[in-house]
Amino acid sequence: MLARPLALVGRNVEVYARYRLVLASGAVEPLLYLAGIGLGVGALVGDVRTDAGSTVPYAVFVAPALLATVVMNGAVIDTTFAVLFRLRFARLYDSVLATPLGPADIARGELGWALVRGLLYAVSFLAVLAVAGLLRSAWAVLALPAALLVGWAFAGTGLAVVTWLRTWQDTQVVQTALLPVFLLSATFFPASTYPEQVRWLLWISPLHHATALLRGLCLGEVGDPVRLLGHAAVLAALGLAGLAVAERRFGRLLLT
Amino acid sequence: MTRTGAGTAWTRAGAYWFVSLRSRWRGFVATSVLTPLLYLAGIGFGIGTLVGPVERSGGATYAEFVAPGLLVAAAMQTAVSESTWPVMSAVRWSRQYHAQLATPLTVTDVLLGHAAAVTVRLAVATGGFWLATVALGLARLPWALLALPAAVLAGLAFAGPVMALSVRLTSDQPLTFVFRFVVVPLFLLGGVFAPVEEFPAPVQALVAVAPLWHGVELARAASLGPGAGATPAVLWGHVAVLVGYAAAGWAAAVVAYRRRLS
Amino acid sequence: MTPPEAVVRARELVKRFRDRTAVAGIDLEVRAGESFGVLGPNGAGKSSTMRMIGCVSAPTAGALEVLGMDPRRDGPRIRARLGVVPQRDTLDEELTVRQNLTTYARYFGIGRREARRRAGDLLEFVQLADRADSLVEPLSGGMKRRLTIARALVNEPDLLLLDEPTTGLDPQARHALWERLYSLRERGVTLILTTHYMDEAEQLCDRIVVMDGGRIVAEGSPAALIARHSSREVLELRLPAEQRQSNGGLLHRVAHRVEELPDRVLLYVDDADVVAAELRRGGVRAAGILPRRATLEDVFLRLTGRSLDDS
Q: How many domains does chain C have?
């Protein structure tokens, strides 16, 4: 069940072992976001009142959202750009299919690799947050598995989406489509900022669920555990659905 | 420059880049106009509800503060995108430059043609967004009109040096680094979302080395009008930096292109 | 239950795509240890057949058994015992030569140390040991093909499938590859290869089938096919049209069969030199006269009226 996909993860590990610098530099980006938005905009904003009612400095408020965004971006880029390249241009999977691996194993392997990378970035980002004193609760320990769950959700979705992409231009469309998701997710400002009528839109944004879950854990706002579990469940289901679709579509694309 | 046949040579070289755009101009316009608009809506207006008037900019609202920053950032993004992979591709993969050079066009024509195309794309990309900004009442005419040439100039200040780099590369790894270590840090720390003075001095110094911040200051001054407190001397200083970058960058590009392609 | 000697068994195998039928019902049987060829022009259905045997393409109809198992149910188990050399090299350009082998080995569940050992042996076998740590991209076409063969052997397969293995290679590379395939034959590996080069089919294969338009038009060993469908020797004449007309009678008298091609005339004879002398005595002035042995190309021409190249 897992041995075959792991062999594909192993292949990606070998490739990126030669690009260690690229891999490591990927961890820098979230820190820049933290500095630019957390520090810079934070200086203008001051303190913020979260949806759960506590008042925190802006950097503390925005950091979990940045973590969610970073994990989302990483997962989507890994599963769209990189997989598109392997699927349509390098035609890597053609050779893999002549082995015991089938299309489902390939989908799971790519998902596994996206999770490994997500884990690397989440660990480094959380470490910086901890050192900078931006984590306000012991619950933040759970932020790491929660971040993995976020990666799971977006990597699954990305893998499903990539089966419909064909050219590099299409990946640009994906990038642009992510922006509205960005906006409708109460990432940089609390949900109360949105007018009442549009607030329900938050529920369909996966990034909102990711942000709300991570924010709750990092800030220690666990007064309503059912809500947090609900966010987690949505993320888990999203990833599962995405993977299921991806497995089937990989089959259709790779086998003739 | 060669002059044979219909139109000057470099315009023909430039025309190629538009033919290839014809099929996907909608996508191009959508991404280059939509992206900054979305940032404006999300960050400008969204965070704007949390932020009061920005004192350093004469009490402008946050949205008014951010809009010109996004304008120049969009110019930077467009300029760098056009100067990285398309140039490498034209040299190594699709080899468009070689195709053009097999005609009476010279290397200078080829470069001029591409540069002209980049300039037009910059104008279109930033122009669309700027129209929207003015329509939303975030920029005060008539001074705001100057923000557009400021953005295009900033874009050209990036395009020149980056094209000089891209034409010589054998692998596209460095291009990823250009985005990761130049474009993204500048975008976040270069005065787009918050005044650069909020950052520690070393960061400010580093940011001042690159063209983005200078362009942002110019565009912001134009957009917010004379009341925002920018002095003409400082503004001319910013112009000088951008012109210097553009001149040096494009000169370097001519040299690099000649060395690589002839 | 198939007797264990039959490595591949197909009955009325069909592969249909939306717009065409690639394989229109074929029967074949490949025995263990033999070197089996599928000869035919482009579009004959060879690659589609190979993909079905390789368990990466599902048959539309008909029965197929590979290594005693059903590809539809036991795909992964069958593939674990196959080696595949595809038509286009699908090497991993982001890995080195050696890593291509070790990574591939792990897809089969071969342990790390064993994978390295096998990679080393295989690199020796295909004479690429000195390029082990170089990336794949700078290698020549022949080297890449040798690496692909090495990769196909990493799981010590019972059956090796090669789809047009020497297409696009220069003569030297082709012969180097044939050398490797000869040694594999001697080791007892079952080979199935497709090709449109009749010299390759003649040199490498114990038995061949000739495919055209999705069907099998002939079957047997190369020598048997030539004996059955052609004469022993052929005289090729470059003869302008008027000469063909005026000498028609003589040509038909001296040869078993006359085949007219746009640029030459083929006379199927038992002894080409003898016939050439007869023609000269009879006053035939040809621009070029070439006596040669009959080949599978002639068999194909006889069976389908077309040459292997221009289909």
A: 2
